[in-house]
Amino acid sequence: MEEKENSRRAFLKKSSAGGLGAILGANGISPLFNRAETTLSIHPRYHRWYVDPGQDWVETNTGYATLNWAIPLSQVALVLVDVWQRHYIRDTEARIEAVINNNLLPLVSACRNSGLQVIHAPSPPVAQRHPNWVNLVPDTGASQKDSWPSAAFRNLSGAYQAYRRPQEPRDAELKSLPAHSFHPKMTPAGREAVVATGEELHRYCKQKGILFLLYAGFNTNACLITRDYGVLQMCNHYGYQVVIARDCTTGMESKDTHSSLSQTKGAILFFEMFGQYSTTSRDIIKGLPPVS
Fold it and tell me: Gene3D superfamilies recorded for this chain (predicted)?
């Protein structure tokens, strides 16, 4: 039992730090750059699993903590995930439009003016149609998958058809919608990079010396979590420090969560609990170097 307890505590320590000790000094300021270099100053928030001395170590005594980071501007990029021109759910689309107009447009504009790199990750079909697609991963044909589970089980075909979700009566209507493309207000400017996959994003960041990724886009509880260029992959698999601009994203809500936006808030809290961070567009804009 004691061994399990120690294991849990070690996991909490690792998760709450989010790998911070390997990159940042004790004061939360990176020692890995010349002090004269242009920096982005931000205040990443995370969920602190620890409690203060003398407090009972229970969930209700945990809460947020905020750090002070000064990041070399050349080592940070803003990643825009799946910022498309449409969404098939009307109220989700309405929230996306409000986020783009009120928060994301000012953030992207400020980043561009200050020279902070903007990277577009709009899904493979959209990326590969754009002239700015970096095309850094050679096409080696279909990837080889393990034989278990079988192809029939993966596709829920043949003997496994009974386990498929039922076909929806409006599937044809959904499939008839226009193909996804960039939101007209969020198209790549100049030579801004467009990536199709997480491996491509990683290779581009390696070329450019990028270590810190600011994330914005849609949807919080879908693509930001599940995409191979999303938050979890780029942090946990590739090792980047990731900060979500929490006012520049929204999730797909349900009937039960629509009024509270608890799917969106829960996804952001999940990131903050397990190794990533969040901040606001205002904090990023305020922390950008002045435009000369």
Answer: Isochorismatase-like
Residues 6 or more apart whose Cβ sits within 8 Å of residue 77: 116, 117, 118, 119, 205, 208, 210, 212, 213, 214
d(CA 187, CA 84): 9
Contact 39, 80 (CB under 8 A): no
Distances (CA, A) of 110 to 72, 105, 121, 180, 262: 16, 9, 19, 26, 29
Average the pLDDT over 189-200 and give the result: 98
Considering the domain delimited by 28-137+171-287, tell me its CATH architecture: 3-Layer(aba) Sandwich (3.40)
Per residue in 231-254, pLDDT (tens digit) is 999 999 999 999 999 999 999 999
List the single range of 33-47, 98-112, 165-179, 198-212 with lowest mean pLDDT: 33-47
Q: Decide: 240 and 205 in contact? Cβ < 8 Å.
A: yes
Measured between alpha carbons, how far apart are the two ends of the chain, in Å?
60
Q: For the whole model, what pTM was predicted?
A: 0.87
The tokens describing 141, both together, are: 């044909």
- How do the domains of the chain map onto residue ranges? 28-137+171-287
Q: Which helix (H) or strand (E) holds 249?
A: strand 241-250
